[in-house]
Amino acid sequence: MRPSPPEYLAWLEPYSDAVRELALAAREFAVSRAPDATEIVANATYAVSMGLSYTHTHVKGFIYVAAYRDYVNFGFTYGASFDDPEGRLQGTGNQSRHIKLRSLADLDDPYFSFLFDQALNRAHRPDPPLEPTVVLMKYESVAKRRPTPR
What is the pTM of this model? Predict the structure, then answer.
């Protein structure tokens, strides 16, 4: 298992222990299932997020984990077209869907793995493959609207 990027850990620091723990567990879930993917880490306006892509840009990403003040979303970039017989995916856009994670147990649900596998199978993979790396998106000039540092 590759370690969390230090910037990601620092950016998550202002969040509650519960949100931070859930975000890190969701990241570990994703990275362990797609170890050859590039990790895109963002310090955005409303959330700190990480995502996975087989390219070196978030544009072709296939999942993301977004930490908000009180919860964590696990997003599927192409989730609108997923097989979701239980109707668990949330969102109304043309493409992306997410699940709001409420506890670590959510990550152990076989249905969650079923959704993740769909994302992994639909991920854009360039030919030839790119070496995995970490890409930081800092958004330093943007005012943050989320927890303030402790």
Answer: 0.91
Structure tokens at 72: 């964590």
Q: Residues 129-144, buried b or exposed e (16+ Cβ, 10 A)?
A: eeebebbeeeeeeeeb
Q: What is the DSSP string of 19-36?
A: HHHHHHHHHHHHHHH-TT
Return the closest-CA partner of residue 107 out of 29, 39, 45.
29
**pLDDT tens track for 47-93:** 999 999 999 777 789 999 999 988 999 999 999 999 999 999 999 98
Q: What is the pLDDT of residues 96-119, one digit of tens each?
A: 999 999 999 999 999 999 999 999
Please, which contacts does 105-111 make with residues 24 or more away whose CB atoms are closer than 8 Å?
107/25, 107/26, 107/29, 111/86
Dihedrals phi, psi of 69, to nearest 5 degrees: -50, -45
